[in-house]
Design brief:
Distance between the termini: 61 Å
Number of helices: 41
Helix content: 40-55%
Shape: globular
Radius of gyration: 29 Å
Length: about 900
């Protein structure tokens, strides 16, 4: 897991250390010095240039060294440990109206230590400066073991021979430093020696920012905080091309924007394809846009400035955005750019490596045109975007690593691209750092004398070359340790089709580029990924950690039978199969499917855990129980028996603290058999009767029928019981799941072909019909599954399409909604939200997962994590809800978790609507 970051490189460490207090860092360094072992610092592991991987000891500071030590509201400063995530710092400082100015797109998981290491900037560096502009002091230990307290940090300041040597080095090279270093704002490559000039106050703390952990280890940092402006607005400018947008930057900068970002239309198209047309707000006409943010104390003045920006920008079209929710939606698309462009339109993987060059802004348009021409000469594809106001361009490129000459093409292109950037007075890196990807390219922009001075500085701080060796000074080759060239296709003997990855599981798991959004808490914005990581804070329990181990499996690095390895079991055990990553991960990872595949491979033709038979075969047991009311009574009596509970729990492989749900006395199908659905003015719908609704929650089914009939539909069900196969999928019994899916699709197809829509009640089952069934099937059955998927709707989706139906008046209804994770990931919850608003209800949507997640929270060994996940959003919200508030939860597992942990009954959308319908 720690052998990779968000870069192209793979360097397995010998040891990973997670220190619990800052005082342990010097001790770790001492051991490394004694043993002669390299040491690499790591924060969120989102480094794109290979700055956070190393062959010796990797120190992960994000796990424990993540405290805000002080906040001084009057001075506007904070003292922080290196592992604090920027978004968490903002939460702590928000009560004082403060935030840290630089805001990289990874701020929800990037640590301040990593930002200091790379000299991170982000979209709003125009307004607030780079990290180096906001560091007031550092407490560090150098590679030689010397403790330095630089600037405004607590502790005694001792005399230092190292600092004397550093002062002497700069004094001997003043002209060199003044002419080659710090020439423009985004010159991040190399060391920032300009801060050591006498006229800059010999600011060693600022000089260490951007040194990528090669000179010293950060124990604490004093940083400048800024106050949130009273008003913001966003100007969106449309252009015919990204180069045309870049040409306009010099005309926009004099108006003092806080941010000036480029966004290619192709990125927006990826979002539409993956998340639906509604995921991209309306945009001005054009093939590329600039997002220009203005901020200040008075909205009227900002509007006047916005008019000037539009008038002088030369844009083809424009849009003024004052609704910050809409602005945030646009910023999220821009911030997810790195992951969204990780695949080309043809499905080829696009890579980092040359993703961070910067040129003076006045040269940006010319540079972009020449860069596009360079891509064309190499027959490569990339989508440029980035911080246009700073002249910094991000791009991912489809380097052909699968070809025999792929590595040579990669190397040749990087050298030509470096020469191009340098010819425009630019830098190899504008904020990500040089790392392994660009350190070897520094001779394109620095003289031999300047590089020799960087080496002398490195030797002064780290004479044994232990700190992140191969970075900046004495660089590793750009094509050494490339992870991408080590991939091996895996397209035989699989349980799922992986159609979006050309049938290749290796391509699927290598979607993960390491951007690390799965390590962020996205729940406040309605996100789900990744509940297990939020519960444990262990890298192995993140989507990225799991993907990294699976990449090792498909590459053969865990042996010939890697599926049976303990490493695979360890990383997948706490995966809830929530599918949150399928929608929330910008690269499109679907860990629920990969876990199902891994279990399928591990247990194929082998005995399985008891829970796989008890919970994976649950639809069979429910049908047996439903044979007669007497059978139901016996089953319920057994499950309620205190004497038998330990035996039942052991036999089923479930946690003894769990209470198994009771079977309903009358199943939904038994009730529906005596129900006569009237002819409807809107035709027929076929209700997909899942096992959970049928056996445990028939009241939901009856409510759904009532609502559908009120909306003018005649309701039908399949002649025989059918099952989507979700319980077999989640336990990796894919052959059995395939058989279930085939029977279900064949049963539903006649209804669909005569024009009926399929309405699902249980979100996980609806999700299978919409996506997983086709993945399980092949040939004509897969084609049939596509037909069924196209006709399958949630209740809210169907009602939204029913033009002559008006929802009941829900004015005065307040509460919260816990969308099922699969509902969020596969169907989306926007139609439900819109229906509730239209009906007049005031229902707040929760993010995150309920924690039960089907069989996960019931299985032995998962209870504590299940509860911890519920505590992220659901349980606190329920405790804060009023007694009269509704708690909407369409998922049976969500309602079960609510009842067991909060003693609160959840309600399906159909139930809420049905009880407010007028009596006939």
């Amino acid at each position: 897991m720690y052998s990779s970051d968000a870069s192209l490189y793979r360097v397995p460490p010998r040891v990973v250390v997670t220190p619990r207090e800052a005082g342990e860092l010097p001790a770790v360094l001492g051991v490394c010095r004694e043993a002669g072992v390299p040491l690499t610092m790591r924060g969120g592991g989102t480094s794109i240039a290979g700055n956070a991987v190393g062959p010796g000891v990797v120190v992960d500071v994000s796990r424990h060294l993540n405290r805000v030590l002080e906040i001084d509201p009057e001075a506007g400063t904070a003292l922080v440990e290196p592992g604090i995530v920027q978004a968490r710092l903002h939460q702590v400082a928000a009560g004082h109206g403060l935030r840290f100015g630089p805001d990289p797109s990874t701020r929800t998981r990037a640590t301040l230590g990593g930002m200091i290491g790379n000299n991170a900037c982000g979209s709003r560096a125009l307004g607030y400066g780079r990290t180096s502009d906001n560091v007031l002091g550092l407490d560090v230990v150098t590679g030689s073991g010397e403790r330095l307290r630089l600037g405004d940090v607590p502790g005694d300041v001792a005399e230092s021979g190292l600092l004397d040597r550093l002062r002497g080095l700069v004094g001997e090279n003043l002209a060199l430093v003044r002419t080659e270093f710090g020439r423009f704002g985004r010159q991040v490559s190399g060391y920032s020696l300009e801060h050591l000039l006498p006229e800059k106050g010999f600011d060693v703390a600022r000089a260490l920012v951007g040194s990528e952990g090669t000179l010293a280890l950060t124990l604490a940092a004093r940083i400048r905080m800024v106050r949130e402006p009273a008003c913001r607005l966003l100007v969106v400018l449309g252009y015919g091309s990204m180069a045309e947008a870049a040409d306009a930057v010099p005309a926009i900068l004099p108006h003092g924007p806080v941010a000036c970002e480029g966004l290619d239309a192709r990125i927006a198209n990826v979002v539409r394809e993956r998340r639906g047309a509604d995921a991209v707000p309306p945009l001005p006409a054009g093939s590329g846009w600039m997002l220009v943010e203005l901020a200040g104390p008075e909205l009227g003045a900002l509007r006047a400035t916005a008019r000037k920006v539009v008038g002088e920008s030369g844009c083809a079209d424009s849009m003024l955005v004052e609704d910050m929710a809409l602005a945030d939606a646009l910023w999220r698309i821009r911030e997810d750019g790195s992951g969204l462009v990780a695949r080309t339109p043809e499905g080829e993987q696009a890579h980092a490596g040359w993703e961070d060059a910067a040129v003076p802004p006045e040269r940006l348009g010319a540079y972009l045109r020449e860069f596009e021409a360079l891509l064309g000469r190499y027959e490569l594809f990339g989508v440029p975007y980035g911080h246009f106001g700073d002249g910094c361009i991000h791009v991912r490129i489809d380097f052909p690593f699968g070809r025999a000459d792929g590595t040579r093409i990669f190397r040749d292109f990087l050298n030509d691209a470096a020469a191009l950037a340098a010819s425009h007075g630019g830098t190899m890196s504008g904020e990500h750092g040089d790392g392994r990807a660009r350190s070897e390219l520094l001779p394109h922009m620095y003289s031999a004398e300047a590089l020799a001075l960087c080496s002398a500085v490195k030797d002064a701080f780290d004479p044994d070359d232990l700190l992140n060796p191969g970075i900046v000074v004495r660089p590793a080759a750009v094509d050494a340790d490339l992870r991408a060239v080590q991939t091996i296709p895996l397209n035989r003997g699989l349980g799922l089709a992986y159609r979006d990855d050309r049938g290749d599981l290796s391509r699927a798991v290598h979607r993960c580029t390491g951007v690390g959004k799965c390590r962020a808490d996205n729940t406040a914005a309605g996100g789900v990924m990744c509940p297990s990581y939020l519960a444990t804070r262990e890298e192995k329990d993140s989507t990225r950690g799991r993907a990294r181990v699976l990449q090792e499996v498909v590459s053969g690095k865990l042996g010939p039978d890697g599926w049976k390895s303990e490493a695979v079991h360890d990383v997948l055990d706490l995966c809830l199969s929530c599918k949150g990553c399928a929608s929330d991960c910008p690269t499109g990872i679907d860990m629920a499917s990969y876990k199902a595949e891994a279990l399928h491979q591990r247990y194929r033709r082998r005995f399985r855990p008891r829970a796989h038979y008890a919970l994976g075969w649950l639809p069979r047991w429910t049908r047996l129980a439903a044979k007669s009311p007497a059978t139901i009574r016996v089953m319920n009596a057994v499950m309620r028996s205190r004497a038998l509970k330990p035996l039942v729990a052991w036999g089923a492989g479930i946690d003894r603290r769990r209470t198994l749900p009771a079977f309903a006395p009358v199943t939904f199908r038994r009730w529906f058999a005596s129900h006569r659905s009237p002819e409807g003015r809107n035709g027929e719908v076929v209700l997909f009767v899942d096992s959970f609704t049928d056996a445990f929650s028939p009241i939901v089914g009856r409510a759904t029928v009532k609502v559908l009939e009120h909306a003018g539909y005649r309701v039908a069900v399949t002649e025989r019981p059918v099952c989507c196969g979700i319980t077999w999928i989640s336990t990796g019994q894919l052959d059995r799941a395939r058989a279930q899916a085939r029977r279900t699709v064949r049963a539903l197809l006649p209804f669909v072909r005569r024009g009926a829509k399929v309405v699902g009640m249980e979100p996980s089952c609806t999700g299978v019909l919409r996506s997983d069934a086709e993945e399980l099937l092949s040939g004509v059955d897969a084609a049939a599954a596509r037909e069924v998927a196209a006709a399958t709707r949630t209740l809210a989706e169907l009602l939204a399409e029913t033009e002559d139906w008006t929802p009941p008046d829900l004015s005065g209804v307040t509460g919260i909604a816990q969308p099922h994770c699969h509902h969020h990931a596969v169907m989306g919850w926007t139609k439900d939200a819109a229906l509730l608003r239209k009906a007049g209800a005031d229902v707040g949507r929760l993010g995150g997962c309920c924690g039960l997640a089907g069989n996960f929270g019931v299985e032995k060994g998962h209870h504590d994590v299940s509860v911890a996940v519920a505590e992220q959003q659901l349980l606190p919200a329920v405790r804060d809800a009023g007694k009269g508030d509704v708690v909407l939860a369409d998922g049976f597992s969500c309602r079960t978790q609510l009842n067991e942990l909060a003693q609160r009954d959840g309600e399906h959308l159909a139930q809420l609507l049905a009880r407010h319908l007028p009596d006939r």
